Amino acid sequence: MADTTARTMRLLSLLQRRRYWPGPELAGRLEVSARTLRRDVERLRSLGYAVESDRGVEGGYRLESTAGLAPLLVDNDEAVALAVGLHLAAQGSQELAEASVGALTKVLAQLPAEQRRRADTVRAATAVGPGGLSAGPPLGVLAAVAGACRDRVRLSFGYVAADGAASERYVEPHGLVVLGTRYYLVAFDLDRADWRTFRVDRVDDPRPARTPFPARELPHHDLREYVRIGQRSVRGSCRVVIDVVRPADELREVYGRWVDVADLGGGRSRLTMDVDDFTWPMSIVANADAPFTVIEPPELQAKVAAAAATFAAAAGPPQGG
Fold it and tell me: Residue 195: CB partners within 8 Å, gap ≥ 6?
């Protein structure tokens, strides 16, 4: 009985992940026969889940959401809290981010438009920790993009590049990746016949198609690493170099996803990054808890000196001095 229950819950999880599953593929994922799959589907139906099926050997299954939030077994306020919490959790560690994006995709797929708007309002008003951004893609945009990835359907949207150039894109979306506080879409751009990475907060009016597209060979076996490498190659307007008196392994564990960390020996490291402003490097040196030296640029050296003077004045004279 325990195995049957666990398999049924896994079946529900798979049905919530994609809009449509061919029967043979779904049975293969569950490692059961077609007959056992039909029994498990009937078990879900008896629990109140609207599972539609297509007849025939090559038929398939889809989970309908006609009952609003029923498939999630939560009320409206709980669903909004889940969406906002998962959105913020996706800005955490790699493991938490990947799990949160998967869960967020399922939650958003079940939220009607009004609940998504409510969740978006709460998310926008929620402050995140140091270095985080309260601004992010609207949950409606995130829901449409995540749903297109899940259902493997082509996606049209407006996009504004880093230089402000606006364009219309028509893509085959393959996955969402979270790096730092940003969501990125990895997709095959049909007009440019090549793989592209899009920042989801720059996506406007995403419009999913109805029919699935065939699978392509991905540009990298790890989409997160693919996006990370791509972001490293994008030069910011300013090169920052900072030497820190801490072992490279320690700094790599914390900041290695976003900056280059070189081992200088003797417990010293060199951080190199390209940025458009000094918010991120200032946050790093403030939290590194170690002596550091700004090698370049002079503008950052001046900013650090000014911040040091401000903090020294705020601390007041040394005790006993």
Answer: 186, 187, 188, 189, 219
Q: Which two tokens stand for residue 17?
A: 């992940």
Assess whether 132 and 96 both reside in one domain.
Answer: yes
Q: Establish if 119 belongs to a structural domain.
A: yes
List the domain range (segments joined by +) for residue 261: 235-315
Which pTM value belongs to this model? Answer: 0.51
CA-CA distances (angstroms) from residue 275 to 183, 233, 237, 303? Answer: 18, 12, 6, 15
What is the DSSP code string of 51-68?
EEE--STT-EEEE--TTT
Query: What pLDDT digit, counting tens, does each position of 196-242 carry?
Result: 999 988 999 999 998 889 888 999 888 878 887 777 665 556 889 99
Cα–Cα distance measured from residue 110 to residue 121, given in angstroms and rounded to the nearest whole number: 18
Is 197 a member of any domain? yes
Write down the pLDDT at residue 160.
92
Residue 37 and residue 29 in contact, taking contact as beta carbons nearer than 8 Å = no
CA dist., res. 110 & res. 200, Å (int): 20
Residue 16 sits in a domain whose CATH number is 1.10.10.10
Do residue 8 and residue 154 come from a single domain?
Answer: no
Residue 221 has what DSSP assignment? S
